[in-house]
Amino acid sequence: MTNQKTTPSLEKSSSWQEQTLETFKVILISSILALVIRGFIAEPRYIPSDSMLPTLSQGDRLVIEKVSYHLNSPKTGDIIVFDPPEQLLRVGYQKEQAFIKRVIGTSGDTVEVKQGKVYLNGESLAEDYILESPNYQLSSIKVPDGQLFVMGDNRNNSNDSHLWGFLPVENVIGKAVLRFFPFQRISLI
Questions:
Q1: What is the value of pTM for the model shown?
Q2: 13-43: pLDDT as tens digits
Q3: CB distance 65 to 44 below 8 Å
Q4: Which of 20, 27, 71, 129 is most buried, with most CB under 10 Å away?
Q5: Which of 5, 14, 31, 51 is an active site residue?
Q6: Would residue 5 show up in a list of annotated catalytic residues for this protein?
Q7: Could you confirm whether 101 is annotated as catalytic?
Q8: What CATH fold (topology level) applies to the domain 47-188?
């Protein structure tokens, strides 16, 4: 009789161990997938300032897509998230302090700001997405190879290329593709 009582106990113990092992496998695989997705495919981001008004507001939550820029370079008009360039690190910004701005010029382009308008390669940009016209001037400058010129949509309240210069393309983390919060403003970007 003693054998009959221990056999079910061993079966329960073995079953519990199998369930625990299966649960551990699921957690491990889920964690690895989450790290791969966040590291190489997409990640959520929070908008910390009003520099992209009216397009994006402080507190908006976005999905940043990371794959396309491994295949193609950023284009004028793209809204990108990037690590701060060296010139911002030197004045106290932290490496982890990501920025979000709109690409205005890419390698070889000339950018100029005059009389409240942004000019790209001598042509005035149609910018229906900005909060207000820039109240500053910027002499014509050529974007060097491997660099971008970026600006916030809130032109007069944005720490961007008109203040600190060019952004190395390798600093780009990804492209903003979706606002998922607040729920009443869910939209593609």
A1: 0.82
A2: 678 888 887 777 777 776 676 665 556 677 8
A3: no
A4: 129
A5: 51
A6: no
A7: yes
A8: Umud Fragment, subunit A (2.10.109)
